[in-house]
Amino acid sequence: MTVLRASAVSFAHNGRMIIDGIDCSVEAGSLTALVGPNGAGKSTLLHLIAAVEVPQSGAIAFGGTDTRALRRRDRARYSALVEQQAETDLDLVAADVVLLGRTPHIPLLGSPGAHDTEIARAALERVDAGAFADRRFHELSGGERQRVLLARALAQEPTLLLADEPTNHLDIRAQLHTLSLLRALADSGIAVLAALHDLTLAARYADQVIVVAEGRVVASGAPSETLTAELIELVYGVRADVVTHPVDGTPLIAFSPLEGSARADSAGPQVVTTGP
Ligand SMILES: Nc1ncnc2c1ncn2[C@@H]1O[C@H](COP(=O)(O)OP(=O)(O)OP(=O)(O)O)[C@@H](O)[C@H]1O
Hints:
Elements: E1 2-13, E2 16-27, E3 31-35, H1 42-49, E4 57-62, E5 65-66, H2 72-78, E6 79-82, H3 94-99, H4 114-126, H5 142-155, E7 160-164, H6 172-187, E8 191-195, H7 199-205, E9 208-213, E10 216-221, H8 223-226, H9 229-236, E11 240-244, E12 251-255, H10 262-265
Parallel strand pairs: 3-8, 3-9, 6-7, 7-8
Antiparallel strand pairs: 1-2, 1-4, 4-5, 9-10, 11-12
Helix pairs in contact: 4-5
Bound molecules: adenosine-5'-triphosphate.
Residues 13, 18, 36, 38-44 line the site of adenosine-5'-triphosphate (ATP).
């Protein structure tokens, strides 16, 4: 089932085209990686889908219904966005930040019940952040806040989860944990669209990759079809060797140093000596 369909979506800011006629779709039960260089338009596309920004033309549909026909509350029940920049002005403990994710499910003027508290607690556990439940959100590290915000999105129980660089700030173990979690959410039926910079991790975890450059989709499809050396050079201006992962067959990408960089010019690895 198609959970999200964007058709000919365009968005300009101060007369400059940022999203230029994008068509894309995301299926239930799949993890889609949105990749592309800095400034390509990934965050803006996620903002348009989440209705943080409004496209000047084109249409965005959730489950076949144009989002303009949905009430704000219904949109919030359907999709959740985990932003790239973690807000720091929330003067709440982590557990209460996660509970905010229940807002679209609580009747207007109502307050969260035991069921909501239990969902929020389970969401914190799911991102491996149960230990921070009682800590003030603004006192957490960037990576800890990132996980709490993912838990808030999970507490929303969305059909479509949008995540803008969800592995930003995370150490490698936490990155793998987050991507495994996104994979598990997709396997449980949720449609996940995540902007990611690490192409090898995108290839390893995603079913589909959408490559964006200068506000347009330049390729989309399975990782092995999209993340080719030719496309990486075209889009990023970087040479890469793409080999097949020996275990799961996904593309494994080794980048060549940029020409003219100290590393590219050197005859081999530099020897670093420490101590006496
Ligand atoms: N509020 C804004 N005002 C002006 N320009 C903006 C605004 N938001 C985004 N842009 C511009 O739109 C373009 C796309 O930005 P966007 O943040 O969507 O890219 P991105 O692919 O997410 O980049 P990154 O990988 O660096 O996060 C950039 O050139 C950016 O400067």
